[in-house]
Amino acid sequence: KGFGKLPNLTGAAEGDYLTDHLTKETNALIRKFKNDPFFIVLSHYAVHVPLQAKPHLVAKYVREREKLPHVDRSALDSGAYYRTSQDNAVYAAMVESVDESVCRVPRQLL
């Protein structure tokens, strides 16, 4: 899910989440070169379109959104160039996945 056509991306199983797969591959490279100098860049595709997230995290943020006070978006967003409120459960789920990934990478250096 979410892979599309990415050159040189291997080892992903059907249904793997791209953020997790990129993190897994990055961590594998860190382990491989742990005793040698290396430079690595991990650039996640999330949180860009297409907005795709793990269903259990989307469900979590749908529940969280229900706790928020009602916002009349038509009144707030009229004429704005950006969203004036953020209650997109899929977007929030994607941010959590990237945050979790960012925590996993440095652990490989310990």
From TrEMBL:
Keywords: Calcium, Hydrolase, Metal-binding, Signal. Transmembrane segments: none annotated. Pfam families: Sulfatase. Residues 15-109 form the Sulfatase N-terminal domain. One of its GO terms (molecular function) is metal ion binding. InterPro entries: Alkaline_phosphatase_core_sf, Sulfatase, Sulfatase_N. Its cofactor is Ca(2+). Belongs to the sulfatase family. This is Sulfatase N-terminal domain-containing protein. It comes from Corethron hystrix. The lineage of its organism: Eukaryota, Sar, Stramenopiles, Ochrophyta, Bacillariophyta.
